[in-house]
Amino acid sequence: MSVTKELVLKKLSSVLTDESKDSSNIVEAGLVSEIVIANDRVFFAISTNKEDVDKFEIVRKKAEEVVKSISGVNVVRVSLTSHDKRPVDLNRNNQAKKVNNKQSVDGIKHIIAVASGKGGVGKSTTAVNLALSFRNLGLSVGILDADIYGPSVPKLLGIKGRPNPGAGKKIQPLTAYSITAMSMGFLVDEETPMIWRGPMVISAITQMLREVDWGDIDLLVVDMPPGTGDVQLTMAQNVPIIGSVIVSTPQDLALIDARKGISMFQKVNIPVLGIIENMSTFVCPKCGEVSHIFGKEGAMKEAKKSGVPYLGDIPLEMDIRIGSDLGKPIVEFNPGSVCSQSYNRIANDIWLKINSSEKLQIVPNIVYEE
Amino acid sequence: MTVNNIFMKLPKDIILSKDKNKIKLIFNDQNQVLLDAELLRVKSPSAEVRGHGPDDAITVYGKKNVLISKLELVGNYAIRIFFDDNHSTGIYTWNYLDELYKNRDNIWNDYISELRLKKLNRE
Question: Residues of A with CB below 8 A from B4's CB?
């Protein structure tokens, strides 16, 4: 006798989601994935919340047992998947079904990464000021400080205080200047170092992104840590980043690492929206003479060489540094300055690029034939 | 590279066949390619299969009837394939899938000779 899906489902409907009498069965609860039957082998998955994985081990065993009791079934493999998404309704019509395969984050429309390769080139300052410029465009903006070891966003935005637990076990982010922000710096003292190995960092990043009640956000700016390691890879694998922005000073030392950043994004198929040259020129406040402290047009040349767009430059200006240390970003407190206007123009440019790439498909659809 | 020039061979759709033993990649130009579960499994680009260097690599055998239970996207650049023998650590980039398809005859022939040499078989 051949084993049918119906038969397996019938058997599985005797398995309850937990011990209590009035609980529903796992089929009714929609926890059973697509069932695959190949001769004498049956396999499927039961989905559960991450917290319930241990509890569901019993359910999993039970499900395995009842299916194994069907005559003609030899091997049964049941796996537990902990996903936010529930499997598609099995009773739906027989068309090929498209799996909701976007790894989207609740409430967030677009995510961009601001990265540099090298540390100390002004990436966080740029990220924060760009976030404010995006806000000036009328967007609702969030910023995620992905630098676990050296979070700068709290200082730059002048945020003190701790996030509260919000609805549904999620963390309530903090806000400053209408920017919704999340940073490791909100959770530990400024003086306390995070002495963590990679896996801890990965789980912190994932939580700061997915277990935060972001509300409705048009654009999330992720302030990436320097380098091309754990955090960058986690972001590239688990988050649908629509594009990246590379910040570099014009000097060769920084450009070498910027180049690595660019090629990392290219390897993981995240479009590079462009390079920003930071600390581009210094204008002497006394005599007005322009000095190219870190070299001239290095980032622009690099952009040309790497074939990525050049987004513009931000001069080295005392006001940016002062504002940054006071938690008063220049775009907010001196909106008329050359720097602020540059940030605004660059943000506008990036937003246009996001809108034009939105129409492009950057990931394939995954379809299960039925 | 500009935003609208994605340089990888990005498929439009990835379809898991009804009998779960192959995937079909459909491209924007309507080009379609098929890849067998067995080939994908034995050439999984995972550390489990490839090791950490050529000397570490293992020959996967006995996967003639292996099936695919699930496909999962990895960022913008790859899929992770879950097989019914519980192997799921392979991350297949668009480029790797393309490479597998283009060289499938050579890869397959090499694989068969490797099995023969090591006195292993597909069943």
Answer: 356-357, 360
